[in-house]
From TrEMBL:
This protein's name: 7-carboxy-7-deazaguanine synthase
Domain of life, per lineage: Bacteria
Family: Belongs to the radical SAM superfamily. 7-carboxy-7-deazaguanine synthase family.
Organismal lineage: Bacteria, Pseudomonadati, Bacteroidota, Cytophagia, Cytophagales
Binding partners and assembly: Homodimer.
Organism this protein belongs to: Pontibacter rugosus
Domain spans labelled Radical SAM core: 13-193
Length: 193
């Protein structure tokens, strides 16, 4: 759908220069999704893996974020193998709604109520990033935390349109439950892509 060089704004790699590769197509249907224009894959022309990588190589950073849409709709082995062979570290932003493919240095699993993660994905997550839309989502976040590995980093991220109301609740929750961390969509505060 699009690719752009920016700063990873969210989660465990916040602040790192990153080349984002956004793949079109998603059938999860989050009502608060901030990239609904990604949902219909047919609206976005296909791009060859070689062309994606040569565009990425124009920039100095060697950290790639594959996102979407839901990137696990696709077999990501060719793209990630070639990125790594060209010296990129690879990371994915995924709902986990489909089984994993691809070779990953970092996996961010962000589970959704609208289409649950595939059970096989949880043990591979380096980061669990739960979007909090209302108070009941904290309990729901704990259910997902019980499924990831012991070394997985746990993040709570306010849903953007409710961030003013939800962020203070996340702050108190993390103070009371310190295995969790706060994740903010810092790119939105910085007004960058
Ligand atoms: C647009 S999604 C694309 C990748 C994948 N479909 C997923 O949901 O993980 C990228 C990240 O943005 C988060 N996100 C999407 N809309 C959001 C919103 N309105 N507020 C906060 N986070 C949001 C998702 O949970 C996910 O972690
Ligand atoms: N700067 C920036 N950081 C991000 N982290 C995850 C994003 C995404 O949409 O997957 C995203 C994004 O869209 N922009
Ligand atoms: S799974 Fe990701 S891309 Fe799909 S609707 Fe939800 S937030 Fe948007
Ligand atoms: Mg985004």
């Amino acid at each position: 759908m699009e690719a752009f060089y920016t700063i990873q704004g969210e989660g465990g790699n916040t602040g790192l220069a990153a080349y984002f590769i956004r793949l079109g197509g998603c059938d999860v249907g989050c009502h608060w999704c901030d990239v609904k224009e990604s949902w219909d894959a047919e609206q976005h022309p296909l791009t060859q893996v070689e062309d994606i990588i040569s565009a990425a190589e124009e920039f100095p950073g060697r950290f790639a974020v594959i996102t979407g849409g839901e990137p696990l709709l696709y077999n990501l082995n060719p793209l990630t193998q070639q990125l790594q062979s060209q010296g990129f570290r690879t990371s994915i932003e995924t709902s986990g709604a489909y089984p994993l493919s691809g070779n990953w240095n970092w996996i961010c699993l962000s589970p959704k109520k609208f289409k649950a993660p595939h059970e096989s994905v949880y043990p591979f997550a380096h980061e669990l990033k739960v979007v909090i839309f209302n108070k009941s989502d904290f309990k729901w976040a704990e259910e997902h935390a019980s499924k990831v590995g012991a070394n997985c980093q746990l993040y709570l991220q306010p849903e953007w349109s409710k961030a003013t109301e939800i962020t203070p609740l996340i702050v108190e929750y993390v103070k009371d439950n310190p295995r969790w961390r706060v994740s903010l969509q810092t790119h939105k505060y910085m007004d960058i892509p």
